[in-house]
Request: fold
Amino acid sequence: MRTQIKEYDEVKIMNMKSTVVAASLLSMLSFGAFAATSVNAEQAQNLQPMGTVSVSQIGSAPMDMHQMLNEKAEAKGASSYRIVEARSGDAWHATAELYK
Reply:
């Protein structure tokens, strides 16, 4: 009897793990589908500007800057952004133009 209960619990745990993995993969795919993209000056010439956003932080990686700009761009409904100002050191700051 104990063996059957143990096997049942193991199956439940495996099913939960599979569900968590599937949900994680789907959320990553949906994040990529709606993410604003970084563009260069040449690419931005063909896009419609829609304002700017700025981010600042102390002691983090440059990838954090891109992620924060991406999140702010998405929140404003932009499909793309172009970094127009960036300073780094112990603290960094970046400003980006947003585009539709």
